[in-house]
Amino acid sequence: MPTYAYECTACGHNFEVFSKISAKPTPRKCPVCGGRANRQITGGAGFLFKGEGFYITDYRSEEYRSREKAEKKDGAEAPAEKPGKAAKPNPEASSDKAKKKRKKNG
Predict the structure, then answer these.
(1) In whole angstroms, how far apart are CA 33 and each of 7, 12, 15, 26, 29?
(2) Which of 8, 46, 89, 90 is paired with 38 by a 20 to 30 Å CA distance?
(3) HSE value, Cβ hemisphere, 13 Å, CA-based, for 3
(4) pTM of the model
(5) For residues 70 and 97, which has the higher predicted lDDT (pLDDT)?
(6) How far apart are CA 45 and CA 42, in angstroms?
């Protein structure tokens, strides 16, 4: 149910009322002085996400999930990267790869 904000025209008291969207709008009375209250335009509340399905990691492909499980099983869990920063290449690792490739090809 949405929350509607009201302000009393007589005393300026602000209060909120919960009512159905389908309910017919009726004039409200101030709970403090009994004067007429006008409904205020509000920005509303933000969304509150609960449960699964709202995070980028919940939408990963099955291939990614299976590789992740295999890495965890082998104990070779990769360190978490900070968002927005690329991993620095390791020059020793690239030279090892080149050596392996040369051995394989020739």
Answers:
(1) 12, 10, 12, 18, 8
(2) 46
(3) 9
(4) 0.40
(5) 70
(6) 9
Structure tokens, 24: 């017919």
CA 10, distance to chain mean position in Å, is 41
pLDDT in tens, 35-92: 999 988 877 666 666 666 666 666 678 888 889 889 888 875 555 555 555 555 555 5
Q: Which two tokens stand for residue 101?
A: 């490739």
Chain position carrying tokens 């006008």: 38
Phi and psi torsions of 42, nearest 5°: -125, 165
DSSP string, the chain: --EEEEEETTT--EEEEE--TTSPP--EE-TTT--EEEEPP---PPP---SSSSSGGGG--HHHHHHHHHHHHHT-PPPPPPTT-PPPP-HHHHHHHHHHHHHHH-
Give the position of tokens 């620095």. 88
What is the C-alpha to C-alpha distance for residues 72 and 60, in angstroms, rounded to an integer? 16
Tokens 């969304």 map to which residue? 47
